[in-house]
From TrEMBL:
Membrane spanning stretches: none
A biological-process GO annotation: deoxyribonucleotide catabolic process
Protein name, UniProt field: Uncharacterized protein
Pfam (any one): NT5C
Active site: D133 (nucleophile), D135 (proton donor)
GO terms, molecular function: 5'-nucleotidase activity
Signal sequence interval, chain numbering: none
Entry-linked InterPro entries: 5'(3')-deoxyribonucleotidase, 5_3-deoxyribonucleotidase-like, HAD-like_sf, HAD_sf
PANTHER family given in the database record: NUCLEOTIDASE YQFW-RELATED
């Protein structure tokens, strides 16, 4: 379930070894605070101190490396015991987000999506932060709104006729009128029932969420945040850490650029179908996978993004997995879908 950003996701466990046995990640090593651990096959490795004061470099050296306490080759009396069998340690979404160097962001409205996905997570410093758009990437928004417009305004246009993602130009009306029609769509049954997951997206997100910190960055408006969260929880449960609303094309409220949201959460990659957002984020130094499902999105084919070193075109979710795998696992034959399955499954 979703909770408003800032609310605690997991009640902090006190400094007791039982939290390790319960599948959590806190063990008291400093007496004054807690150190967070992630799971490794050979030992517990401290990541950061929860007491409010980060571990000093000397303390970190003693705890993490050079044969110190908690290291694989430690021979000291204070060595943490090498576990023979244990439950996976779970990473709370808030800790994953902040562990990637992101700071709290109060510009766009953001919401936690559940708590932990229940999967063992790689070392936090190795988790790549991936931002994912909703419409035309996770769900088929354009086909749903086209059905509504055809019924309400007798304008019959197929998805193949949307040469730009600017509804005013497609419907041949003013921007204000287009925004009004979009909000009428939000109140219709089409918005509630006609948007379905893009083929391949659900399994791909399940795979990627094991090795990536996945968050949603959408231009959707605050007015539809409740239904959006409900839709994500229904079709992509416990797979995304947070969702950010940019509030673009809204009747009320300030809009936040996607590039600003992505930078603030530390995203290294954006998956989006809109060339405008692709260029905006690429110019901010963020890699973009420009999504054009089965080569069927006319608006994604604009040539002004061609040749940009940070923008890569993809045509399905298998290609998304292949490209992300090549960045996360740079060694190996990432042209093979078998390689991706071996890494993600």
């Amino acid at each position: 379930m979703v909770t408003a950003a800032g609310a605690p996701l997991v009640t902090p466990l006190k400094a007791e070894l039982r939290c390790f046995q319960a599948g959590r990640y806190c063990v008291d090593v400093s007496r004054n605070g807690r150190a967070k651990y992630v799971n490794r096959p050979y030992s517990l490795v401290p990541r950061a101190c929860c007491s409010g004061n980060p571990l000093s470099s000397s303390a970190g050296d003693r705890l993490c490396g050079g044969g110190g306490v908690g290291s694989r080759n430690s021979g000291g009396d204070g060595e943490l015991p090498r576990p023979r069998a244990f439950a996976p340690l779970l990473c709370d979404s808030e800790d994953i987000r902040l562990g990637n160097g992101a700071s709290q962001f109060s510009g766009a409205k953001d919401y936690h999506i559940g708590s932990s996905n229940g999967l063992p997570c790689p070392e936090l410093s190795q988790k790549i932060v991936v931002a994912v758009d909703i419409d035309e990437v996770l769900g088929n928004f354009v086909s749903a709104i086209s059905q509504f417009i055809a019924e309400r305004y007798s304008l019959h246009q197929a998805v193949s006729e949307y040469h730009v993602y600017e509804f005013a130009k497609i419907w041949r009306c003013s921007k204000d009128e287009a925004n009004i029609r979009v909000h009428e769509f939000f109140e219709s049954s089409y918005f509630k029932t006609a948007i379905h997951p893009i083929p391949g997206a659900q399994q791909a997100i399940r795979n990627l969420s094991k090795v990536c910190n996945m968050s949603i960055v959408t231009s959707r408006q605050y007015a539809i945040q409740d239904h959006t969260i409900e839709w994500i929880n229904k079709h992509y449960p416990d797979l995304f850490q947070k969702i950010y609303f940019g509030n673009h094309f809204a009747l009320n409220g300030k809009s936040i650029p996607k590039s600003e949201i992505c930078r603030s959460l530390g995203a290294k990659v954006l998956i989006d179908d809109n060339p405008g957002y692709a260029i905006e984020c690429a110019e901010a130094g963020i890699k973009v996978l420009l999504f054009d499902y089965e080569n069927s999105y006319p608006w994604s084919k604009t040539e002004f993004v061609n040749g940009h070193p940070l923008i890569t075109r993809v045509h399905n979710w298998e290609e998304v997995e292949l490209h992300l795998a090549s960045w996360i696992f740079p060694t190996g034959n990432t042209t093979s879908s078998n390689f991706v399955k071996e890494q993600f499954l």
